[in-house]
Amino acid sequence: MTWPWIAIALALVIWRASRGLGARAQSVLLPTAVGVLIIAVWRLLCLVQNEPIFPTPEETYGGIRELVVDNTLRDYVIASLFRVTWGFFLAALVGIPLGLVVGWSLRAYRALNPIIQGLRPISPIAWIPISILWFGVGDRAAIYLIFLAAFFPIVVGTMAAVRNISLVYVRSARNFGVEGVELFRRVVLPAAMPQIITSLRIALGVAWLVVVAAEMIAVDSGLGYLINDARNMGRRYDLVVAGMLAIGAIGILLDLLIRRLERFDEVRWGYAGR
Amino acid sequence: MTTSSESARPKVVISGVDKSFDTRAGPLEVLTDVNLTVHEGEFVCLLGPSGCGKSTLLNIVGGFERPTSGTVTIEGEAVTAPDKRRVFVFQEYGIFPWASVWDNVALGLGGQPRDKVIETVQYYIDLVGLSGFEKTYPMELSGGMKQRVEVARALAVDPDVIYMDEPFGALDSLTRLQMRAELIKIWKQEQKTILFVTHDVDESVQLADRVVVFSERPGRIKEVVEVGLEHPRDLGSPEYGVAKNRLYELLGVLHTI
Ligand SMILES: Nc1ncnc2c1ncn2[C@@H]1O[C@H](COP(=O)(O)OP(=O)(O)OP(=O)(O)O)[C@@H](O)[C@H]1O
Ligand SMILES: [Mg+2]
User: Can you list the alpha helix ranges (DSSP code H) found in A48-119?
Assistant: First the structure.
């Protein structure tokens, strides 16, 4: 078994070489080095197991190939993304307006905040029986769970964003005759937007986390289903790990995607110093 | 341009204004029995130590806060809410960081015809020397430029009165002097009434027709000092020195250093 040692050497070379390079190059090279290192160490650790308790990188690679060749991976990724997209968008659709209103009106805040704070700590997993009761086994139950998971970070984040708006912005708007709906459109929403985007980012992460859990119970497709099914049918741990890696990779992509929102001129001011 | 109190019409009349805030430690008296008449076209500075209630008074006059007792009238009309005819330039930057320079200056121009808006916004952006920065966002502007945007935004709605709360406090001393010179130029050209809060003696003597000196909290008016000098002012003239010394004396810091 020599390739892991070569890989470790390679990782160290990349590490050294990245010294003095620009921030962009480093943020590609350094994680690559760490990734290579982890795979090599993973392989070496597999050498010392007496009975197979964890699939090797080669076996996992085989598993990934198998899933790619028969298009299972593609279909399951699409199935999972479909559910996350629906749950997340519904959560944003309800959560942002609700958060704006509750954050803006002191009476609405006093009335609704305790209820929101009381529902928030209930894990979406705890909702599984109820959601199956309401929606049956299938996409709608899973989407409902994702909706719940994404909804609370969005409402709470939007609410806090509105409550944090600097008084001077609201006063200038009023001074210049901007009132009512216009005040919301031109001041409250844009002033809260950077923090709303941050809450959307958190919510998307949580939604992706929960889709996998939801798919273990409520449906027969998707990455969560893949993991559960691979274990139950023939203890295919190579497929389990392949599914886990796919979940991680897509999680990164989703985060990169939503972070692009932070670059618009209208919100960049909110992330100064980052 | 000295506005003598006799010839000009009274614009802003503050009579018997008291203000106290309810705080956790009980009521905090901030202003007691403030009486002041500001005339049309006059440049009045409110000068006093930090915490004496200058911003509070300006917020009351601007309609953002209610006095505990007393009244504020503008042209005989009681002030109850903020109004586009009297606009603020805030102590902290009040321009919107999410909007371009252009959109910031256009803030108060809703409901006007498009070409009129375009003409007005361009005119005031040029006036404050920000031509070429129309599409820039405040993040990319210096402190002085941001303050110019705020001044342009205020002028664009053609107000009769402008309230300025330490607008140049955050600027370096050279920029501050330049901004003062430009403000005086604009004030003469546009014939506005200006109430300007500061705790800088030099600033008040350089700008104002009259300087209203406040005591420490609870703030009341100690004295109103007539500066009575033409612009541009000779900062080395004896009259300038006399006015300055009088203000230092009122603030209790003459010949103390
Ligand atoms: N909303 C409020 N609630 C309670 N106290 C307040 C409030 N606003 C102002 N005060 C108090 O009133 C006093 C006067 O405040 P104000 O902001 O008017 O001072 P200022 O003269 O403008 O001071 P500075 O020159 O430092 O800006 C301060 O002691 C302040 O703590
Ligand atoms: Mg103040």
Answer: 57-69, 72-104, 106-119
pLDDT in tens, A252-264: 999 999 999 999 9
Of ligand 1's listed atoms, the one at least distance from the Cα of B21 is 4
Cβ neighbours of A193 in B, within 8 Å: 98
- To test the ligand 1 pocket, which listed residue (B21, B90, B92, B203) has its Cβ within 8 A of the most ligand atoms? B21
Question: What does residue A244 show for φ and ψ, rounded to 5 degrees?
Answer: -60, -45
Q: Are strands B161-165 and B86-89 parallel, antiparallel or unpaired?
A: parallel
For ligand 1, atom 2, which residue shows the shortest CA distance? B21
Cα radius of gyration rounded to whole Å, chain A: 23
Percent of chain A with pLDDT over 70: 99
**If residue A189 lies in a helix (H) or strand (E), which one and from where to where?**
helix A189-217
Instruction: Rounding to the nearest 10 degrees, give the CA dihedral for residues A24, A25, A29, A31.
Output: -10
Q: Give contacts of A166 with chain B, Cβ < 8 Å.
A: 92
Is B102 near chain A, with CB under 8 Å? no
Place of tokens 């612009």: B231
Please name which of B75, B59, B106 lies closest in space to residue B11, comparing C-alpha atoms. B75
pTM, whole model, 2 decimals?
0.85
- Rounded to whole angstroms, the Cα distance separating A22 from A227 reads 39
Please state whether A20 falls in left (phi above 0), alpha (psi between -120 and 50) or beta.
left
pLDDT digits (tens, 9 = 90+) for A208-225: 999 888 888 778 899 999
Q: Which residues of B148-186 are buried (b: 16+ CB within 10 A; e: fewer)?
A: bbbbbbbbbbebbbbbbbbbbbebeeebbbebbeebbeb
